[in-house]
# Entry
Amino acid sequence: MPFLHTVKLVSIGRTSSLADTPFGAEVKVLQNVVVHGGPANWGLGHFRGLRTWRLRGLRGDGLTTEHILGILRENPLLEMLEMDQLNVQILPDNILLTPIPLSRLTSLTVRGCHGDFVDQILRRIRISIDRVNQFYIAVWSWGSLDPIRLLTDVLTSWSPVYQRAHQICGGSIFHLSDLGTFSWRATRDGVTFRLCLSGIQAVTGMQWMAGILSQVDGSRAGASIECENAALPDAEDLKLLGSADVTFVVGVPCGTGASLQALLQALGDPATPAFPCMETLKIKRFCGSMEGIVKMLRARFTDHRTGFSVK
# Structure
């Protein structure tokens, strides 16, 4: 098979096996590999010279972080890496500590994997920031890792990725549907950057990201907050979010009642208003009284300044 360049290995059912994959020195131009749902031969040399590597739904079967990192090390020209719902044995941190350069990588997805696995992958790989146009990290379970450690110790080191995304996409969005989950995205045509971290409080994650985005030099790109299911933090938390020099657009769905009142209260505090740089407040499908909004505006702009609009 000297001319084989694309392989998709799919295992249906837990008893299936893909262990006898016929790769190695015989295959000279293998570039694209998808392994879905079953074990393969993870020995070094079986996957080499890849441009795309996608792993999906792999549950145990001897797969370890050493296997993953070793194969990544053998593929410095990798352009797309996707790891979706992997259950991988985590080996100690002293395994393969040296960085793994992936300077041609344009797309990185790590979704539905344990936090301790994500931690090891993001600590090792090195990418060219300007080449990446797809970046998606989603963690719903953490293994032995403290979620805050991943946020402050590992994901912070990827700050240039988020800052560039915020700039080239003309802004970014925080999504609030569950206060126990931090969700952020920046998108435009052909470009998607996303973080979704269950187990990290939304307000904590938003404060962290707002601090990172505030360091973007000369950017007027704004950050938006989308709220669903009455998932607004209380007034004091909202004030904390406004500490960074970021322009905010806040969207609130109709019928959120007390949550909307908490938002208006925070915005209308004349001493320390939430989101002091906010230019636009979007209240989607608003069907309540304007009294609270008028009161907020009067309190916020006692000197009759302009530049703030309500839609």
Remarks:
- The radius of gyration is 23 Å.
